[in-house]
Structure prediction request, 483 residues.
Amino acid sequence: MKFVKKDFLWGGATSASQVEGAYDVDGKSLTIAEMRPFNPNLDRKSIGELNAYTREDYEKSIENKDGLHYPKRFGVDQYNRYKEDIALFKEAGMNIYRMSIAWSRIFPNGDEAEPNKNAIEFYRNVFTECRNSGMEIMLTIQHYDVPYPITKKYGGWSNKEVIDLYIKFATVIMNEYKDLVKYWLPFNEINIATHSPITGLGIFKEDFATEQEYKNAAWQGLHNQFYAQAKVIEIAKSISSNLKMGCMVANIETYYADCNPVNVLENLKYQQMERDFYYDVMVKGKYPTYSKRYFEENNVKFETTPEEMEVIKNNPIHYITFSYYMTSTMSKDISETSGGNLLMGGKNPFLKATEWGWQIDPIGLRITLNELWDKYQIPLFISENGIGVVETLNENNTVEDDYRIDYLSEHFKQMNEAIIDGVDVFGYTMWTPIDVVSLSTNEMSKRYGLIFVDYDDYHKGTGDRFKKKSFSWFKKFRETGEL
Ligand code: BGP
Prediction:
């Protein structure tokens, strides 16, 4: 089968806190991502790690007297090895790199008058290297790495003052890089906010008197991000018409477990609040009617102003990007849960799962693309998709990762089918072209890359890069378009 679209963006995605390292260079502050330790006793099928630690634990990690290991402080050393990595991405045939920029490098405390010049220079060099290698850049402005000084002083995203700090940061980088970076995503997986407020918003349970207040603060933080994103889109328009502004959502796709109407309804309600809600706000510019009932029944209260709602209404996103790893099922009573990316649903007997319990479902990607296109009618882009596996180098210094070739090619085929169905998809960035530190479990052992990186869970190793079998497969696919 040949991939039908000629003019298509093909590449890979990473995030600053998972690849860069160099956590203390040039005045960079620590981010919340770099303050959660690796837990050698972790339960791989649980998403508990994201919420496992308290503000006190984070505070203690600053001096690291406990001797624990904080993998995201080291990443895979891309800060120093970016030229080598970009050369490999180019060799694989990529024409786009989705990466993120660390707020903690540009404005370490958030409220400095001037950005850090060295950090501005560093990213200019990275972007220039990409452009000289024939790659567009899709830049995530915040990818799970709120600078800790901002959460300490301001309490994180539930505080409206943080909106102004973020807008200042975003405005500076849009002005700096308007000629180098075309695609912009203000927030990674904006829908994580209410599920892991530490990760998405930098807010901690201990700062609130009751569980309900904490929940409301998370909804407030999410609203503040919706508004901040719309404001950034408004500002982008005044900077340059070349800036293409999108959203990034962890696409939660669930099927009803059976044809019992009770379960069909349960799934509908779940899909409304866990998936459609986010696109509805960012594409249609207002809170959907079904969310009112949800807020009332769950005592959710947060503050919006008419001015904020006006900005949200007038500045919808230009295109949708989303991460797609898996699907699960939904029913009134879930008997057996699957693992999952951010959320866990029910097990689907028709699907195989990874060691982390993520159920592999290429056809679900075609379904998702069709559904999103029918509902929103704006261009779509898959900004993350891939498979995490425990891998080691063999005697030939490579990994025979046929399972990854299968995973990727099956998803590409379904994307192709969706395009033939008439869906407007303009690009795809796999998670990830190179092994990185895992977002959820902080493991290095959970590897997604076409390129193997020689570090273990404790950052021991040479850091050298080795091409896996999937690297050559992808390269060939890019040359021939043949699936
Ligand atoms: C997404 C995040 C990424 C990423 C990916 C895989 O939710 O945007 O940062 O890491 O999931 O998750 P994990 O690393 O936990 O396997």
